[in-house]
Recover the amino acids of this structure.
């Protein structure tokens, strides 16, 4: 006799036979959800919908409007895209599809050996929509790692072949779509039926697949690429390609080889050269008195400001560093967010009146005492020496709001030089699996918080969503305002941080 189990979804409990797929249950409840169900939490643990009922359990469905579901949608859409390109190019020699980096709400992609034009993209898009309408299952199977290496060798996916040679476990999960096999790092949607919202745009040497934002999963936002940021990413990617380090597998080859030290030296020399070029540009503009440095969390703003200051000195200038944190409002005047906590990410947290008054006074030849904010007492203190701008002096000011025109609206534009900095990871896992730049910065912050601030990894991870919301609101909208952009990511960085981050992550309690 078949066993029957009780499954609770929301406030309702129903009986299901052992072996019932979660996808079947999801279809029963789909009408109660605004967005498509793509995953489920089963007794608190994230699962794909092809899994089945094996005990009494609680199901909490995850839709494309949830963070985990949104990521699964983007992964699955990438699979659909790659499959469609190979279908359209069947019988033609191509060197693969490569997912490079984020552009707006989409990914910048190239196809080796193919002219990407409107006609080609039209055929790919038509094939993607056809497969979405057919609601083809995305199947998953587990194979031996050696078999996966052989499989991807036959398919010409040599980045995956190289990656799995360093895999420390004996098995690999492989996904299949209509007979086409691929590997993806993370959970996938159950089928192509939910992959309805996308658009393809020719861009640069390839194209962008535009997808919905998490905040609005049922429609596409206007395609508005950030041109300056893309150029920086492309420059970094080209450098990695020139070094033969496009993916994690290639980096592993270099680390296990004999020229790792040279790679480190070349990468650091390249960064120093870029900083020197920015310093020369600042020095060539005699009216500049305020160098404004902004970027998201763990992008390296403080370190960059110090390195830039050294290069400014070599150009005969006298830099003076200022952290915008010293211009916080007094604690009792600090605004609060919707949860009632102090909102330290908001522009209104900055004492803009004092900041602009002091900067204007310095610009006019006057003296000011730059405050120092005491985070224990929550108040500014004035114990430094008075500051006056000399003929070769320049203030290097760093903070998350430094590119927001509202912060410096009383200062003449000719006196400002704006720099955007971020850790724009150019290294990907393989040709179809990106390493999001936000993930790279999170790893940096985990290590920094644990080593210098005694903050456990669990706490850093818990507040990351709030940090990201602050970046989306206060930093990213102004990044294209920058006169220069600097990529602080180092191509070998994941390998260095791993030894520090891995023990911290293993220490996080699974809930």
């Amino acid at each position: 006799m078949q066993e029957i189990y009780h499954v609770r979804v929301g406030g309702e409990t129903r009986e299901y036979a052992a072996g019932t797929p979660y996808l079947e249950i999801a279809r029963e409840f789909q009408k109660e959800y605004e967005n498509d169900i793509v995953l489920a939490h089963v007794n608190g643990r994230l699962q794909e919908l092809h899994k089945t009922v094996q005990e009494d359990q609680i199901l909490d469905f995850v839709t494309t409007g949830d963070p985990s579901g949104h990521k699964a949608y983007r992964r699955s859409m990438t699979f659909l895209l790659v499959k469609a390109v190979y279908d359209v190019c069947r019988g033609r020699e191509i060197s693969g599809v490569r997912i490079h980096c984020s552009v707006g709400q989409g990914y910048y992609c190239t196809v080796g050996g193919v002219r990407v034009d409107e006609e080609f993209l039209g055929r790919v898009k038509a094939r993607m929509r056809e497969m979405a309408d057919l609601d083809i299952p995305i199947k998953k199977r587990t194979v031996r790692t050696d078999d996966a290496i052989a499989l991807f060798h036959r398919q010409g996916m040599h980045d995956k072949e190289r990656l799995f040679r360093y895999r420390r476990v004996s098995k690999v999960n492989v996904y299949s779509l209509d007979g086409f096999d691929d590997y993806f790092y993370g959970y996938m949607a159950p089928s192509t039926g939910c992959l309805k919202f996308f658009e393809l745009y020719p861009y640069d040497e390839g194209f962008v697949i535009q997808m919905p934002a998490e905040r609005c999963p049922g429609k596409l936002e206007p395609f508005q690429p950030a041109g300056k940021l893309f150029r920086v990413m492309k420059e970094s990617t080209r450098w990695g390609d020139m070094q033969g380090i496009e993916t994690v597998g290639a980096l592993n080859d270099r680390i296990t080889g004999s020229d790792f030290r040279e790679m480190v030296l070349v990468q650091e020399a390249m960064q120093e050269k870029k900083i020197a070029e920015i310093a020369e540009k600042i020095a060539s503009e005699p009216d500049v008195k305020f160098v404004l440095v902004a970027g998201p969390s763990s992008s390296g703003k403080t370190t960059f400001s110090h390195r830039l200051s050294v290069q400014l000195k070599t150009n005969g200038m006298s830099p003076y560093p200022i952290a915008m944190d010293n211009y916080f409002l007094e604690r009792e005047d600090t605004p609060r967010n919707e949860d009632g906590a102090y909102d330290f990410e908001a522009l209104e947290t900055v004492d803009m009146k004092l900041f602009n008054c002091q900067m204007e006074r310095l610009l006019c030849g006057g003296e000011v005492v730059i405050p120092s904010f005491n985070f224990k007492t929550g108040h500014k203190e004035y114990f430094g020496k008075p500051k006056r701008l000399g003929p070769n002096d320049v203030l290097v000011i760093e903070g998350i709001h430094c590119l927001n025109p509202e912060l410096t609206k009383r200062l003449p534009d000719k006196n400002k030089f704006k720099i955007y900095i971020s850790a724009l990871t150019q290294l990907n896992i393989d040709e179809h699996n990106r390493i999001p730049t936000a993930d790279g910065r999170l790893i940096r912050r985990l290590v920094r918080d644990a080593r210098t601030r005694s903050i456990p990894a669990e706490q850093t991870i818990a507040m990351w969503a709030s940090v990201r919301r602050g970046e989306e609101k206060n930093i990213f909208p102004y990044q294209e305002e920058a006169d220069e952009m600097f990529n602080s990511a180092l191509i070998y960085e994941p390998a260095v941080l791993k030894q520090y981050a891995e023990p911290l992550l293993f220490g996080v309690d699974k809930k």
Observations:
- Residues 260-283 form the longest helix (24 residues).
